[in-house]
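step: validate -> pass
step: tokenize input -> pass
step: predict -> running
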Amino acid sequence: INSMKSFNKIFVIVLFIIIMIFVGTNTYFLRIPEQSGRQYRVEISRLVKEISDVGLENIELSKYEYVTDVVRKDTMEKDFFEGDGRDYVIKEIDGKYYRFDYVSKSLEYRTRFMLAANIVLGIMAVLVVVAMICMRYKLLKPFNRLKEIPYELSKGNLTMPLKEDKSRFFGRFIWGMDLLRENIEGQNVR
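step: predict -> pass
step: emit ->
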């Protein structure tokens, strides 16, 4: 019983460590500053210059990595400032307002990497927990039942037959202990 209590304590400690690893890893990823800097600002500055030189109609957005859309408005409207839930910057060019929608790739990469790290940590945590549960039921529980048998045999308590166990780990041990019990019982009868 003491070994089961010790194992339960170890199991709780391992679960606590797994949770702390998850929390620590996610905290670390969330504290990493954006690696790309503000490259979208460089692209927006280039677009502002290009729009003032050649006009919005002659712009090819496909050559820009961070800026996804440019919208022009002559007047200030509420929906113009709300956007579509994306990040944006508003610039005034020649008396007209332009909204530059952009994406921050570093945040996207960080989110993907964080998700991948959490999946790997989750798989490892599940494997550790499953291994510990299997160890408890396949090794410790049968051993707990068996640990009193040699003591009982030494006291001369030979009447209790041993239950067969299908465990690969203790099957032959139980069989051997039962044979020993029968031999000692046979010797005592003579």
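step: describe -> The chain has six helices and three strands.
step: cleanup -> pass
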